Amino acid sequence: MTEMMADVEHAEEPGPGSGLDGLDEQLVEQLVGQARAGGLQLTGEGGLLQQLTKRVLESALEGEITDHLGYDKHDPAGRGTGNSRNGVRSKTVLTDVGEVEIDVPRDREASFEPRIVAKRQKRLSGVDEMVISLSAKGLTTGEISAHLGEVYGARVSRQTISTITDKVVEGMVEWQNRPLDPVYPVVFIDAIHVKVRDGQVSNRPIYVALAVTCEGHRDILGLWAGDGGEGAKYWLHVLTELKNRGVADVLMVVCDGLAGLPDAIGTVWPRAITQTCIVHLLRNSFRYAGRQHWAAIAKALKPVYTAPTEAGAKERFAEFTEAWGGRYPAIVRLWDNAWAEFVPFLAFDPEIRRVICSTNAIESVNARIRRAVKARGHFPNEQAALKCVYLAIMSLDPTGNGRKRWTMRWKPALNAFDIAFEGRLTTGRN
């Protein structure tokens, strides 16, 4: 086994672009075969992968110090150069295959600065990426620490994990302040609530704005932590910030039925159409009805929001009022109060109706966020909550397939938007 390890360590490096194909397949098969024959595990503490990682890292470090000094180990050319090797120091680093103890070469002048495992570096970059990925999926610091211990035999404290995830804060600030497109066909806005411990645990809204670009891509414009309950006044602050970051025009803003929100939208983008989310209207309607009547109420309201025209919707709503108004007058008042923001989408083609009649686009994002924050219980402060939500949305589409589905779904609607809004999309892009 030792001879095989040495062969790997001194094997000829593969050429550019060859990647794993440049490795000697026969050598790999021999390594695996000898490991199994000798009872050596491939993974886990002391396994083949850990030993290979140790040899590869030490070989790379030896190559770095050779480049630094300008001569190979034991080469007579190094005599009298003023600097030379000065033994090694042991160091334990956390890698993707667990903790690995390596020997780091030193020089007499202490001027050697290794790059593959820098001074004071205790983790390889892949470990940091793993921790951030696990955090984005909703695992707590304690769960991540336990996971690394169980799977890799690595001892990583909660504080270290928190320090790793804090690295994303700088990127989050840059992302939050990036310039935005001058025009968006649709912006969906909504708020979710998280528990923050600030003296005492309280529900705090996290405001989310999701836009569809002129190319049909999903773009989350930002995240904002509010104080107290969701309010139109804070939404005015959020929308104003978006305008200051370059959003000069929005064709339609889809939102829930929060009082005062249409006025806030009109203040920032006077030409924007405010569309109430049908899903929110239905959900709020159920709050005033007994559970046993939910299915019947949903069936009775469907002809209202699927009517071909506003006049048709009024007729169907009159029928609903006659059938259910006596039992549930609060539902009738709810729809009456929301009517002005409910009907705009009825004036558009089916291609537009299908994509803006609900906030399902942002609801799917919110569902991912809720999964991430649910395991936390509550957060120590506002920034911890924002960091968790940011990590969750940055991991929304790891394969890129979601981006393709969005583009295919929105392409017909974008053409209809450009016609219905008399070229405002085209003008905004130019």
Automatic annotation (TrEMBL):
InterPro entries: Transposase_mutator. It comes from Kribbella amoyensis. Residues 1-21, 68-88 are annotated as: Disordered. It comes from the Bacteria. One of its GO terms (biological process) is DNA transposition. The keyword Zinc does not apply. Coiled coil: none annotated. Required for the transposition of the insertion element. One of its GO terms (molecular function) is transposase activity. Residues 68-77 have a biased composition (Basic and acidic residues). Keywords: DNA recombination, DNA-binding, Transposable element, Transposition. The keyword DNA-binding applies. Belongs to the transposase mutator family. This is Mutator family transposase. Pfam families: Transposase_mut.
